[in-house]
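Take a careful look at the protein record below. Let me know whether the structure tokens fit the sequence:
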Amino acid sequence: SSLPAPPPPGPALPSSPGARVADAMAAEEAALGDGQDIFYVCKKSLEKLQEKLKGTEEITSELVNELTFPENLPDEETMVPVDMRGVGQDFDDVEQMVESLGPKGTAEAFIKAKEYFDANKDKEPAEERPKELTAAEWKQVLQEEEDLLEGEEEDDLLLEDEEELDEDEEGEEEAAEPAAKKAKTS
């Protein structure tokens, strides 16, 4: 018995520009280091949270803040890298995590992220792995990222201003034309 012939291939769908942008971003992320999502947390706070989670002590949002916000830490405090892929969900920031998971869930998520980092699933050579930083160094990294973001926002604002200027000029030109036509007819 002969098998039915496969149907002819249909016309290929054009890929949407959105998909291409996503692909480019994914490619860029891959190039940056196989998708690691590194965040730094206070080593001492992380250890404190691990102890509290072993017991039944309450995890407060203050403790989570101590873990994740270097502003309140002494400059020489040790910050350790964690890989946020270990959390298994994407969050924009720590506040969003606390809202979604609660302080205890957030603490557990960071511990998972630390375990994920330690497991080194990408088999990175030790010398290429993110190192511990001091709180002062991590603050500097965050500040540089913030400056970059602010720079981009300023560029966007400049573009918006320029677009408004163009519209104003067009309006003036249109207003000038009818006046010129009236002058000719008299």
Observations:
- Confidence is low (pLDDT under 50) at residues 15-33.
- The first strand starts at residue 38 and ends at 42.
